[in-house]
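Colleagues,

For the teaching module next term, I've prepared a clean inverse folding example: a structure given as tokens, and then the sequence designed for it. I'd like students to try predicting residues themselves before seeing the answer, so please don't circulate the second half yet.
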């Protein structure tokens, strides 16, 4: 195939033009890889801290009621829904915790520890103690680490939990760190203990549900609301801005990549047009020797495509290196409850495949017009050009 031979020869001899095009494509690909890794890292962190550490669905009492009394039967019914991975009845309330002369507003959650751990993976957030101990310790409590710091209480210490005129003395048997604002207010207690504090009998205030696929929460909520008079709400309803970000990220990224593609294509096309103008005599000679216009078109397209592979590889390496450098930058902002802020990068194999496809598409698009204009040259005029 003589078109490939000519394309290879020109790519290897025209070092300056080849290097310019290669660097242009590599920079564009590098930007794509860097933005893909960083934006996906942000999405993963948001999903981890907001979606995975909270129920995907919350089942609330019927209208006009404050509690769910038949929660065991309702929980068993929810468990058989397709896609449900965990169900945990919970009695949630707002109160105050006092240790010595320190008093802090808290959110107490009464749970069965086994079911709650399946729902929230609480044990993974424990920094001291064992979450399952709540099953046997009716006066035990597990506190958010920031709440414990504010109260200046350590594991083993006793404190009072207040709800209106009622109170109960509890012992800290563990600390957890979710890395969210919950660390400043959360108190986990046995469900039986909170029921005694609330004084409404064997009831819960909500049932938390976790799904295999969290994106299916709205559809599941609609289905559950249609099947019962209990009110089911998805996590998207509680976190509309975050849900919008997670849902629209792919569209935003695609628009950004198209923008980069167009800018880079114009730069590379301009370079290729300049190359064509300098090679008019060569094109005319090839046509005089019997080369068809299709062959001329193929030569210039092949030249661009040959550059795209090494440019794509270089761009992937450059983008990944830049993203890694950004993750190492010192940050002055601290995340709520976590004590530090980090930038994550998600490096998935498919991203590099996307980047290589982007490099190929970029060189193909940028080479179409110059290659087409070269194929339309008049052989006589091309040979006579300077």
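(Answer key — instructors only)
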């Amino acid at each position: 195939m003589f078109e490939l031979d000519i394309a290879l020869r020109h790519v290897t001899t025209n070092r300056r033009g080849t290097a310019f095009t290669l660097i242009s494509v590599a920079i564009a690909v590098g930007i794509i890889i860097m933005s893909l890794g960083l934006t996906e890292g942000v999405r993963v962190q948001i999903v981890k801290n907001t979606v995975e550490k909270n129920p995907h669905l919350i089942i609330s009492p019927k209208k006009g009621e404050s509690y769910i009394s038949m929660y065991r039967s309702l929980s068993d019914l929810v468990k058989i829904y397709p896609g449900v991975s965990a169900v945990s009845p919970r009695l949630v309330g707002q109160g105050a915790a006092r240790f010595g002369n320190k008093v802090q507003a808290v959110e107490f959650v009464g749970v069965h520890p086994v079911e709650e751990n399946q729902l929230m993976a609480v044990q993974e957030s424990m920094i001291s103690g064992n979450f399952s101990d709540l099953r046997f310790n009716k006066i035990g409590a597990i506190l958010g680490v920031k709440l414990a710091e504010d109260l200046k209480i350590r594991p083993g210490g006793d404190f009072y939990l207040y709800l209106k005129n009622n109170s109960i003395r509890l012992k800290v048997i563990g600390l957890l760190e979710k890395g969210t604002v919950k660390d400043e207010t959360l108190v986990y207690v046995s469900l039986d203990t909170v029921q005694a504090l609330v004084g409404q009998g064997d009831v819960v205030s909500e049932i938390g549900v976790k799904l295999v696929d969290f994106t299916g929460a709205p559809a599941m909520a609609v289905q559950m609301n249609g099947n019962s008079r209990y009110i089911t709400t998805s996590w998207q309803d509680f976190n509309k801005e975050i849900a919008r970000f997670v849902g629209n990220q792919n569209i935003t990224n695609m628009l950004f990549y198209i923008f980069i593609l167009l800018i880079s294509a114009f730069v590379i096309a301009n370079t290729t047009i300049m190359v064509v103008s300098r090679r008019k005599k060569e094109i005319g000679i090839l046509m005089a020797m019997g080369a068809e216009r299709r062959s001329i078109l193929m030569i210039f397209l092949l030249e661009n495509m040959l550059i795209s592979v090494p440019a794509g590889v270089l761009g992937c390496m450059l983008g990944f290196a830049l993203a890694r450098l950004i993750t190492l930058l010192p940050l002055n902002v601290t995340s709520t409850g976590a004590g530090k802020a980090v930038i994550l990068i998600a490096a998935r194999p498919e991203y590099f495949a996307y980047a290589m496809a982007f490099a190929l598409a970029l060189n193909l698009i940028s080479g179409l017009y110059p290659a087409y204009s070269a194929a339309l040259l008049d052989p006589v005029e091309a040979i006579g050009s300077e």
